[in-house]
Specification:
single chain; alpha/beta; Rossmann fold; 2 domains; 6-stranded parallel beta sheet; about 15% strand; globular; binds adenosine-5'-triphosphate; binds 3-phosphoglyceric acid; ADP binding; Phosphoglycerate kinase; cytoplasm; Phosphoglycerate_kinase_CS; Phosphoglycerate_kinase_sf
Length: about 400
């Protein structure tokens, strides 16, 4: 796959870099703070390499899932400021993605300077399912640059304008971050040392339930935590109260449970749950049995007994892939399940990979040393889809020259 050197002499060239700068933010709307800058730090080496080579670097990225129109709550302005600090150079910020501000900011860049465009998802064309609409937006993005570098590993599973279509319109190359991530994940797919244990959690339930299908043929054990738990519990006939639930996935989940039993893959579900009366209500947090969730409460973490059981299930693992926090780790009352899994991973003798923006943030904000894990991937959904063996549109598009 073509790396940055394939783009030739970059001096004076405008290079559009797609990074994944989707970081967690917290605080009041007018003073949002980045709570974990891991994805920004991971994006720095490629941006710096391009700037050092004399390119005029134009960074495009998304933050969250706005509805295709500008929304101040999802502005990349704080991210651009942090990028400037990490690069130790001024980073210009365009107040739009392809409009007058972007044109002016990019036009004013000197060789070696860097600009960040406003959230690419403020434009409906970015995520449109309509090829023509996405293509029209990609045309506008491509007009801002002479070359394209794909470095946002966390989004390479998205067939979106700034990830996929723009690569068809400009000379392109794979960035260092995408190349590194794929190298590590390849080790998990080719010859994982066994036992191979996969831990799944998080809140993007519908995105992630599907991966179980494929993992049933690959992993020896699947540990299920986070928001995904409740669709399993409901499928087993239990009350889940107001917890996250994908009702229409119940038949799929029942099929997974049956196939796991048939093929000898162990699916480990929590036996106790930390519930609360309302989302984030730490004062009402209490532990209940997983088959006795009160109708009026919602599950926000796996319980202590489950944390222990998950740690035991991980103890003899030689390969572990973990995606998705076990609970709402951002609040202390619901962070212990995630802590238990992270702690268990630090003790395994083989390769441990933590994948996902929030999972990686959880590990760091709970105070774990990154070096205690084999690899911390910036991609959640992207790494899961890679492990499933699915085609990543943002990678395959780079193969076509
Ligand atoms: N039981 C639960 N109910 C609701 N939210 C939950 C629950 N358990 C975990 N979460 C939330 O899941 C979020 C992370 O989920 P997500 O699926 O996005 O993880 P990720 O794969 O690490 O990140 P990404 O896919 O964005 O890279 C966290 O913000 C956490 O609070
Ligand atoms: O957080 C992520 O996994 C990536 O930034 C992709 O975000 P998305 O799931 O909203 O496409």
């Amino acid at each position: 796959m073509a790396d940055l050197s394939s783009l030739g002499d970059l001096r004076g060239k405008r290079v559009l870099v797609r990074s994944d700068l989707n970081v967690p933010l917290d605080g009041p709307a007018d003073d949002l703070r980045i709570t974990d800058d891991g994805r920004i730090r991971a994006s720095v080496p490629t941006i710096k390499a391009l700037a050092d080579a004399g390119a005029r670097v134009v960074v495009t990225a998304h933050l969250g899932r706005p509805s295709g129109a500008p929304d101040a709550a999802y502005s990349l302005a704080p991210v651009a400021a942090r990028l400037g600090e990490l690069l130790a150079q001024d980073v210009a910020f365009a107040a739009d993605t392809v409009g007058d501000s972007a044109t002016a900011v990019v036009g004013a860049l000197a060789d070696g300077q860097v600009a960040v465009l406003e959230n690419v998802r403020f434009n409906a064309g970015e995520t449109s399912k309509d090829d023509a609409e996405r293509g029209a937006f990609a045309d506008q993005l491509a007009a801002l640059a002479d070359a394209f570098v794909s470095d946002g590993f966390g989004v390479v599973h998205r067939k979106q304008a700034s990830v996929y279509d723009v690569a068809q319109r400009l000379p392109h190359a794979m960035g260092n971050l995408v190349a590194t991530e794929i190298d590590v994940l390849r080790r998990l797919t080719e010859t994982p040392e066994r036992p191979y244990v996969v831990v799944l959690g998080g809140s993007k339930v519908s995105d992630k339930l599907g991966v179980i299908d494929n993992l049933l043929g690959k992993a020896d054990k699947l540990l299920i935590g986070g928001g995904m738990v409740f669709t399993f519990l409901k499928a087993q006939g239990h009350e889940v109260g107001k917890s996250l639930l994908e009702e229409d996935q119940i038949p799929t989940v029942l099929d997974y449970l049956k196939r796991a039993a048939d093929t000898g893959v162990e699916i480990v579900l929590p036996t106790d749950i930390v519930v609360a009366d309302a989302f984030g209500d730490e004062a009402s947090a209490r532990v209940v049995a997983a088959d006795a969730i009160p109708a009026e409460s919602l599950g926000l973490d796996i319980g202590p007994e489950s944390g222990k059981a998950f740690a035991e299930a991980l103890a003899d693992a030689k390969t572990v892939f973990w995606n998705g926090p076990m609970g709402v780790f951002e609040q202390a009352a619901f962070a212990e399940g995630t802590r238990a899994v992270a702690q268990a991973l630090t003790g395994i003798s083989g390769l441990s990979v933590v994948g996902g923006g929030d999972s990686a943030a959880a590990v760091r904000t709970l105070g774990f040393d990154e070096a205690a894990f084999g690899h911390i991937s910036t991609g959640g959904g992207a790494s899961l889809e890679y492990l499933e063996g699915r085609e990543l549109p943002g990678v395959t598009v780079l193969e076509a020259r």
